[in-house]
Amino acid sequence: MKFPRRSPSPLKKRARRGFRGYPIATVAFYGPDDTYATKVAVGIVASEGDEADPLERWVAKDRDVRSNPAIGREILAFIERHGVKTVVMTDRIIGCPHEEGVDYPEGQPCPKCPFWAHRDRWTGEILH
């Protein structure tokens, strides 16, 4: 007996479509460790070589942002408002949700997220 696959989020479906042109929405997840995402940042890149602008962030303390339907709807509305043709998103949590130079001093590890202190945020490997 086969069990039906849980349908992926509409955001994941859009990301799987591949490059369809600009504007592009970039979606990145952040959390205190690599298992629980408390923040998602979505930036809109209008054309090749541009910086992400606008950039919006959503934060959830009581639930992983990746499984929060209200945040998912807000992200989809945000990318629709900006006429996004392509969605690119990380497949993992890529770092601490706190911002260097804003929440803690520039060049220092985040005091609230020791998991990321000596870890490569792209590979998850510990740095020496």
Can I get a quick summary?
The protein is an alpha+beta fold. 16% of the residues lie in helices and 21% in strands. It has a domain of 89 residues: 2-Layer Sandwich (Nucleotidyltransferase, domain 5), CATH 3.30.420.
Describe this structure in words.
This protein has helices at 10-16, 69-81, and strands at residues 24-30, 39-45, 55-59, 86-93. With 128 residues, it is of the alpha+beta class. The chain has a domain at 10-98: Nucleotidyltransferase, domain 5. Strands 3-2-1-4 form a four-stranded mixed beta sheet. The longest helix is centred in the middle third of the chain and has 13 residues, at 69-81. The radius of gyration is 16 Å and the shape is globular.
Number of helices: 2
What value does the Rg take, in angstroms?
A: 16 Å
DSSP, total strands = 4
The SS-based structural class is: alpha+beta
Helix content: 10-25%
What order do the strands of the largest sheet run in, or round the barrel if closed? 3-2-1-4
Oligomer: single chain
> What does the average pLDDT come to?
91
Q: What fold name goes in the CATH topology slot of the domain at 10-98?
A: Nucleotidyltransferase, domain 5
Poorly predicted spans: none
Q: Report the span from N to C terminus.
A: 48 Å
Beta-sheet strand percentage? 15-25%
Could you say which overall geometry the principal axes of the C-alpha atoms support?
globular
